[in-house]
Amino acid sequence: MVRIGVDVGGTGIQVGVLDEQLNIIGRGSIETHTELPFGEQVRRIAECCKNTVASIGLQEKDIASVGVGIPGIADDKTGMIIKCTNMFWKDAPFRKEFVKYLNKPIYIDNDASVAALAENMIGISKGRSSSVLITLGTGIGSGIILDGKIWNGFHGIGGELGHTIMMIGGEPCTCGNRGCLERYCSATAIIRMGREAVKNRPNSLMLEKAGGDPAKITARTVIDSAREKDPAASEVFSRYVGYLAQAVANVVNFLDPEMIVLGGGVSKAGMFLLQPVRDEFPEHVIFRDRPMPSLDLAILGDEAGIVGAAMLS
Amino acid sequence: MVRIGVDVGGTGIQVGVLDEQLNIIGRGSIETHTELPFGEQVRRIAECCKNTVASIGLQEKDIASVGVGIPGIADDKTGMIIKCTNMFWKDAPFRKEFVKYLNKPIYIDNDASVAALAENMIGISKGRSSSVLITLGTGIGSGIILDGKIWNGFHGIGGELGHTIMMIGGEPCTCGNRGCLERYCSATAIIRMGREAVKNRPNSLMLEKAGGDPAKITARTVIDSAREKDPAASEVFSRYVGYLAQAVANVVNFLDPEMIVLGGGVSKAGMFLLQPVRDEFPEHVIFRDRPMPSLDLAILGDEAGIVGAAMLS
């Protein structure tokens, strides 16, 4: 029997077929078409699952379950997607639609939560009893694993570290609040700080790399320039590291999991990012002379989404 | 058989004897004397336990266990108190000393955690599968209950909501960091804001209640003046409510327990505090149109410490 994992994203939908040892033995994908009716979108996902299974010579009867990771929240009891802003889905009966085309047990969960589960089952935090994954992308996602299981909160609205307030009255956030952690620790935050920095530093390498156009500065521009020791970029990067260290310390002070894992696009900076955050976060931990969570980088990359989704049960 | 609960505080130590229905059937107390050698302090606590049991006509053999709540952290496996700043205890072998005088199973935990356990077992959050207690005192304590049990984190350093950072670069904290939640949500924060406010508002009722001396303004002065609609006090109180609402929302966004409970001295303001916080915190929750944790006041008062400690096992 195989398990199917589906990773739903705003631009594409990835499907993976996993064997019983959790190896990916088949992959498929389709483009996201949010303009289609919801039922039609679900039908396309189910067809992609079936086609992917067929492509490796298996049949529908070989499928044990289908797990779906979405950039939003779902009610696993009812199989409803409660809110999934990027996909324009709200109170959408995913399971009910899906089983019309592929009648298997369907599990749905948040994408950061399923990635955290994947890292905890076969990735960097394998075997840890508790871990928190923080994904540093356009926004901040986070997934909490306690006793080896996803913790989304009692009402399913937890695990949103990115929208905890880290700066009272701070930067306005897309969620309607101010000062959310996401405004300081995401790729978007690096970009904002980089673009601000070049206003007074026209000689910065960041601007050179961006062809002189501040609007073309990306998180990568800032990080690469900091690696090359550009002073303005180094200052921005150092501020970012400070913010991220405080975010990590907040997780330690409040929840203290066995391990904290950094994933998402920004984490591709590797040790250049990890080392200074590792060095700094303990300063912000109240019991800083005690053993505390280890901090490491996610290792499953883009596969975490499909692998974690397939593990849902 | 009875269980003994001990609540260790910087000024006094309370002892309670609980029957099997968790009723307090005997009480005792001693003054704290931090100047005594550690072993002597522990001996006095053990004697107080024995005397309290004797005072209700019971004997040592009737004692099933002794639980101790401390304003610090302990390692329940070894029975060591790791750090307890107010008592000047560090790496102190509490269990080893205690059993010299009273040889019973000894359990030790953080005072906010045991209070959270008490509320969750017989108080306002009775029967809730998960809850977080936030105690609003000189500092901020917090206790996390998950699946009916205390969650102190993997390394025992979690549950310190008061030292999560809510204001990057903000007010300096006693812990050595800046912008800790405690600096904005504790009684100390209300006092600081009240004293600042009267500088430019010499006609404030706060100053009148304090006999003209800003140093005599307490949290109660501010709250009572706000109740009487003093404009300066109302502004301070309203700012405080806003900070506390954001702190509550941080707990919702990250952990989403079934219930959040406010305790400690400031919570004695009752509905005057609870209602505006209840009204405001959902604005700061990302999934604010979904069911979310209920917010209520602790009901066990000072007894929570001994009751929760007695429940440790």
Describe this structure in words.
2 copies of one chain form a homodimer. The first copy, chain A, is α/β, with parallel strands linked by helices and 313 residues long. The first copy, chain A, has 2 domains: 2-117 and 303-311, 2-Layer Sandwich (Nucleotidyltransferase, domain 5), CATH 3.30.420; 127-297, ATPase, nucleotide binding domain (Nucleotidyltransferase, domain 5, 2-Layer Sandwich), CATH 3.30.420. The first copy, chain A, is 35% helix and 23% strand. Chain A contains 10 helices and 13 strands. Chain A has helices at 38-55, 94-98, 111-122, 182-185, 187-199, 205-209, 219-227, 231-254, 271-280, 303-311; strands spanning 2-8, 12-18, 24-31, 63-70, 73-75, 80-84, 89-92, 106-110, 130-136, 140-146, 149-151, 259-263, 294-297. In chain A, the strands form 3 sheets. The first copy, chain A, has a 5-stranded mixed β-sheet. In chain A, strands 11-10-9-12-13 form a 5-stranded mixed β-sheet, sandwiched between helices. In chain A, helix 3 crosses helix 10 (303-311), helix 5 (187-199) packs antiparallel against helix 8 and helix 8 (231-254) packs across helix 9. The longest helix of chain A is centred in the C-terminal third of the chain and has 24 residues, at 231-254. Chain A starts with a strand and ends with a helix. The model of chain A has no long low-confidence stretch (mean pLDDT 96). At the A-B interface, strand 10 and helix 8 of A face strand 10 and helix 8 of B.
